[in-house]
Amino acid sequence: MERSLDEIMVEQCAPTLAGIKPASLFRCRADGGRCPEEAVARWRRELEPRGIVIRVLKTCPVTGAYLVYVYRPAWLRQLVNRPQIRGFLRQCGYGPEMDVDAMLGRLSGRFCLEEEYPHEIGVFLGYPLEDVVGFIRHRGREFTFSGYWKAYGDPQAARRRFDRYRRC
């Protein structure tokens, strides 16, 4: 039995909804293989006044699965405008003139068109840049700690962050 968008949203996005993480991403497959636009629209109406946006990044016409991105635009804007993160994103093909919406459009396109998974998604989910770069450089190996993602920096800091998300 497929879980509803509501169930998945609350389970997967709790840290973002609670304000301790800038964004979350989850995969969902709706009954009948179509995106429940009414559920997405309802969540949009509920969340946008609270400074949270829901966006479908990708819909797969073959499986009926889709990727839903839930984020806090103000927080995300701060993240992607940090000089180190902006530089990293430029290396991934994100232009210097791009705003958050344009960046998310490019990310969406990369999910749809690229054979390789766009690992820069970690930046858009609020992962520390050292973890995103470390994952790419080490190809997912040689990490210092593993939890919600593979960490490549201070393992104690990663453990604390993951514990906070888990409690949420």
**Strand order across the biggest sheet?**
1-3-2
SSE topology string: HEHEEHHHHHEEH
Beta content comes to 5-15%
What sort of overall outline do the alpha carbons produce when their principal axes are compared?
globular
Query: Are there runs of 5+ residues with pLDDT below 50, and where?
Result: none
Percent in helix: 40-55%
Number of strands: 5
- How confident overall, as mean pLDDT? 89
CA gyration radius, whole angstroms: 16 Å
Tally the helices: 8
Largest sheet: 3 strands, antiparallel
Structural class: alpha+beta
What separation lies between the terminal Cα atoms?
26 Å
Briefly summarize what is shown.
This protein is α+β, with helices and mostly antiparallel strands and 168 residues long. It is 49% helix and 15% strand. Strand 2 (53-59) and strand 3 (65-71) form a beta hairpin.
What does this protein structure show overall?
With 168 residues, this protein is an alpha+beta fold. Helices cover 49% and strands 15% of the residues. The protein has eight helices and five strands. The chain has helices spanning 5-17, 37-47, 73-80, 83-91, 100-113, 121-124, 129-138, 155-167; strands spanning 23-29, 53-59, 65-71, 145-146, 150-151. The strands form two sheets. Strands 1-3-2 form a three-stranded antiparallel beta sheet, with helices on both faces. It has a two-stranded antiparallel ribbon with strand order 4-5. Strand 2 and strand 3 (65-71) form a beta hairpin. The longest helix has 14 residues, at 100-113. The two termini are 26 Å apart.
